[in-house]
Amino acid sequence: MTAPVEEAVRHVLTVPVSDEQLAEDVAVFLAEGLVAGERVAYFDDDTADLVLSRLADDGVDVTGPLRSGQFQLVPQEFTRAALHAPIDELAGLMEQNVGDALGAGWSGLRFSGQMDHGLRRPGGVVLDEYDRLLDEAVRAHPLRALCVYDHLRYPDDLIATMRALHPAEPPAAPLHDDSLLRITTTGPARVRLAGEIDHANRPQVRRVLARLIDKVVRGEVGEGTLTADLSALRFVDVAGAVSLVHAADELPVSVLLRLENLRPGVARLLERCGAGFAPQLELVVRERHPLCTADALGLAAGGQGA
Q1: Which class for 126: exposed (0-12), middle (13-18), buried (19 or more C-beta within 10 A)?
Q2: I want to staple 141 with a disulfide (CB 3.0 to 4.6 A). Which of 6, 98, 196, 235 is the partner?
């Protein structure tokens, strides 16, 4: 999981190399705001389902915050309209939203979103001008912003410009990220796999696990257990499942490979591939109930009408 941003830094940039990193960084940022008693908002432009799914993977239940108005999911049409509003109107809109959040009893406002639509239509917001305006607003109000400029949607020259304008960027040092699968360290003997395992990245998964297992075997970390959080692993092919089972089969009797927060479908595949016959392999299944964008908007609308 991405490390929390330093408390004093309230205007932060992230440059994801994959949608898995985008969801990871945004979900952490929004969840921190919910815990801090801030109103949080996500401006959707085709990525809300991804973020909502990652929040569910992280165990963050947003149904209550959606109903109470603490979590606001801004629909795609409003996001795109804002990106084509005059720049001076945006300043007033941010000030108004901060005032609304404080008036509703929240400690501040925190937001993120996808803004690449502004690149695809003449007359859209000039993003560097928007960012300077946002930086001024952050300095003047209890406001936090995570700006997302990912390599999948923005040109490299614009990313370089935006990096120069932002005071901070969360550190990102994945063990592996190939845009399909992201592997990150979450503790001395804990890793997280997010995305999909197939023939293209199966050898890399095995190499990463082998390095970590070697540290556990030598007693450097883990007290005999390597834990892999698979809550965000959506898919694994049969060969990938067999490889995980074989990795456990090859462990000494004093070492355990623990796969936790498995989605039921992934767990069933592992069982069919022999997980039940691998004594050094432990599976922990967790049901998950992610919201889709439409359901999230419906909850928010119902809460406002209550």
Answers
A1: exposed
A2: 98
- Cα–chain-centroid distance for residue 46? 15
Contacts of 263 (CB under 8 A, 6+ apart): 230, 231, 233, 234, 285, 286, 288
pLDDT confidence band for 45 (50 / 70 / 90) = confident
176-285 matches 11-172 in CATH topology: no
Q: What is the pLDDT of residues 104-151, one digit of tens each?
A: 999 999 999 987 766 654 444 577 788 888 888 898 999 999 999 998
Question: Which is higher by pLDDT, 65 or 88?
Answer: 65
| Topology (CATH level 3) of domain 11-172 | Rossmann fold (3.40.50)
Within 56-204, strands assigned E span 71-74, 109-113, 143-148, 176-177, 181-187, 190-197
Under CATH, domain 176-285 is a member of which superfamily? Answer: STAS domain (3.30.750.24)
Residue 219 burial by Cβ neighbours in a 10 Å radius (0-12, 13-18, 19+): exposed
* Single-letter residue type at 286: R
Buried b (16+ CB within 10 A) or exposed e, 66-91: bbbbbbbbbbbeebbebbeeeeeebe
- CB–CB of 20/181 below 8 Å? yes
Instruction: Read off the pTM.
Output: 0.91
The proportion of the chain whose per-residue pLDDT surpasses 70, expressed as a percent, equals 93
What mean pLDDT is predicted for residues 264-282? 96
The 3-state DSSP class for residue 237 equals coil
The DSSP-derived string for 201-216 is THHHHHHHHHHHHHHH
- H helices of 150-292, in order, are 156-165, 202-217, 238-249, 264-272
Q: Residue 3's pLDDT is what? A: 39
CA 301 to chain centre: 24
